[in-house]
Amino acid sequence: MTVLRPVKIVYFIGQLGLGGSERQLYLLLKHIDKRRFECHVIVFNPSRYYSLDKDLQKTGVEVHAIPPAVKGIPKRVLWLYKLLCSIRPDIIHSWSVHDNAYAAVVGRMSGRAILIGSERISLRDPDFHTLGRIYRWLIIHGVQKHVVNTESIAKELGEFHVRQEDIFTLPNCVESFCKSEAPFPLQGILPDNCRIVGMVANLRRQKNYPLFIRAMIPVLEKFPDVIGLLVGQPVPSDPEVPDQVLQAIEQSGYRERLRWVGFQKEISGILNRLSVFCLTSTWEGTPNVVLEAMAAGLPVVATKVDGVVKIIQDGVSGKLVEPGNVEQVSNALCEFLSDEALSRRMGKKGKAFVRKNMSCSGIVRMLTDYYLGLLEERSV
């Protein structure tokens, strides 16, 4: 009897911190069938706070970190080439847009692997357009297939002349729909009897934390029992944002009721303590934290951008506001805080949506079928 070997897949990712992209890769590989797939993750850079490498290894995934001494593109290409030649993958899937270029170059050098790139945030991101022309060409056209997490990014790839048949839309997933038993990690830091409006996101320009802070001022004026909570770590690509956040908090006049608590590992415990969740991004892919907030049954206020409009039905499972509109954000937050029945109803609708459409088992089935379909096409 012939025993088929597992399909070998190598993933490239910039780092393995607790950002949305990293969390999604962890969830998918945690649930993927290890009898059918042998999974390797190559990490390009160390994480500043927490790393998911050990969590991935516990699920049966092999994690390879590029050594710190291997610096510069030529040395990294050589290191990757040697590793890929030893693994001999069937599929190379770059999970970070910047690493698509490495998949394109090293993938072709090392064998016949199917080359898949990922775009998980809008290509309107200014950082993307600061890259060199050849680098951008490799990111978009050097790989054979693309995986995106929302249809809006698929349309953007079309503007770069990528064929729609070469683009696969894989929604983000949420692991659990049960109320977490995780303790609130900020016990004793915030008043026990306060209501909390929270925003959880890395400190990137696109998240527009200063807008959230400005929008909270009328909320704090109206509701003396409300605290605004900002949870997120600084990122090297946007070093100016922490100072902007602290300055906006100082200028608000509510320094004691607007709290930035930096990096927090136990996000589930925080979400379960919030009264309302808010995200004020200027652009997005599909923000994982919004799905987690919905899974926790929270009412959500979010800007009407990109993939957000695919997961929140305005006025049914949350409230969508125009990006940059401080007044709309304030009004939506005040409406939820004034009407507990409305908050419960929309939170319940959001929870039902993610339960039906965003389960990890369902999304992993989609990804599995996609990989197997690509391999079948190649064998014909």
Please write out the topology:
Elements: E1 7-13, H1 20-31, E2 37-43, H2 53-58, E3 62-65, H3 73-87, E4 91-94, H4 100-110, E5 114-119, H5 126-129, H6 133-141, E6 145-148, H7 151-159, E7 167-169, E8 195-200, H8 209-222, E9 226-231, H9 241-252, E10 258-260, H10 267-271, E11 276-279, H11 288-295, E12 300-303, H12 308-311, E13 319-321, H13 326-338, H14 340-357, H15 360-379
Parallel strand pairs: 1-2, 1-4, 2-3, 4-5, 5-6, 6-7, 8-9, 8-11, 9-10, 11-12, 12-13
Provide a descriptive summary of the structure in words:
With 380 residues, the chain is an alpha/beta fold. It folds into 2 domains: 7-173 and 359-379, Glycogen Phosphorylase B (Rossmann fold), CATH 3.40.50; 195-357, Glycogen Phosphorylase B (Rossmann fold, 3-Layer(aba) Sandwich), CATH 3.40.50. The chain has 15 helices and 13 strands. The strands form 2 sheets. Strands 3-2-1-4-5-6-7 form a 7-stranded parallel beta sheet, with helices on both faces. Helix 3 crosses helix 4 and helix 8 (209-222) packs parallel to helix 9. It is globular.
